[in-house]
Write a structure and sequence with these properties.
CATH superfamily of the largest domain: DNA breaking-rejoining enzymes
Number of strands: 0
CATH topology of the largest domain: DNA breaking-rejoining enzymes fold
Oligomer: single chain
Radius of gyration: 24 Å
Largest sheet: none
Number of helices: 5
Low-confidence stretches: 103-111
Number of domains: 2
Strand content: under 5%
Length: about 110
């Protein structure tokens, strides 16, 4: 709720810039609660929000219904959704590239 209010683009009529700043600061503190969270947790909350924003609507809705608490959980849920729509049960492993073999060095025969 506080996140939505923080992200709202409307300014109440008659609110001066200082009041807008203080209102936003209060909403930020209620949303993020910086005194209770580390910088890493705050960053993950922002990344989670942006990750959800870039998802197509149907996937976003499904992922949000599962209420992920962190970005990586949202990414895993997204992959589950994609796999289920493809009929796959397991995520497809990333392609493996052949290892480049360097020149073979052999010991020189002694005299």
């Amino acid at each position: 709720m506080y996140r939505r209010q923080f992200r709202s683009t409307t300014v109440p009529p008659g609110e001066n810039p200082a009041e807008t700043y203080h209102r936003l600061k209060g909403l930020y503190r209620r949303w993020i609660r910086p005194e209770e969270h580390t910088k890493e947790e705050v960053g993950d909350a922002i990344i989670l929000e942006q990750f959800l924003r870039v998802l197509p609507g149907d996937i976003r809705t499904w992922v949000m219904e599962h209420e992920p608490k962190e970005g990586l959980a949202a990414a895993k849920l997204t992959q589950q959704y994609i796999n289920a729509r493809k009929g796959a049960r397991q995520p497809t492993p990333p392609p493996r590239f052949p290892r480049r073999e360097g020149p073979t060095v052999t010991a020189a025969a002694g005299p």
